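Continuing from the previous page...

OK, I double-checked the sequence for Ferric siderophore reductase C-terminal domain-containing protein against my notes and this is the correct one:
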Amino acid sequence: MFKPQEMDQLVKDYRLTLEPSLERRFSISAIDLLDKDKCLDYLDKVSSIFEASTEAATASLFAKRYSFLTIASSLYAMSSFSKGMDYSIGNCHIESIYKGQAWLPKVRLSNMQVSQPDEGNRNEWRDQVIRSIFAENIDKAWRSISKSAHISKAILWENTAIYVYWLYENTFREGASDDQLLRIQNDFEYLINDAPAHLFGEKTNPLAKFNTPKQVTLASAEPIRIRKTCCYYYQASDEPEDYCPTCPKIKHEPVSIG
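Thanks. Re-ran it with the corrected sequence; updated structure tokens here:
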């Protein structure tokens, strides 16, 4: 079981919820995303949130939300607490939550049983947790959405990858103890370098595929990973050519040194 303060943190900071949302229009059992008709109906509903000009753009922007709500609480629990839960797609529900004008959905699990590694067996346990999150959930969702909305699966996977990088390089480290920092770093390196492709349901590790070196360019004051795919954010913006800072459509000229 989680300690009360651990559960409070997952609920407060990492998009886990223990109760169904009262807002049902944009709430759905995640497994319904695997049904083409239900998937397209749901994407049509959430298109009103994103105001995107194309079905592919809606799918991509939804994938960002789904990636975050799925991986934030699950990976934080794994790396910070060495505790895991069943994040397979049949156990997950998208619960619609608004914070001000922003739509910030959360994940609710039907079965909240918690697992922990046996002594000296954390690596095998970690593989089971990773498989539950990615091969048994995200990969299945992306395959369905890719076919239903006619969008490249690579775009959906890169939307996931950028959040994995950001969470592990930034948010997960905040307030972490030395032991937690060590696990966070070890798990991150495993995810983006060594985790076998079958844990993601893919032929290659998608987190490794998009892990390009950070660069300082004229488009960004901070070092950034330039995306390999465009997420179509600009198709939901009121401003023409309003791209994400890491978009490959931007001319990322390197900054001269010296």
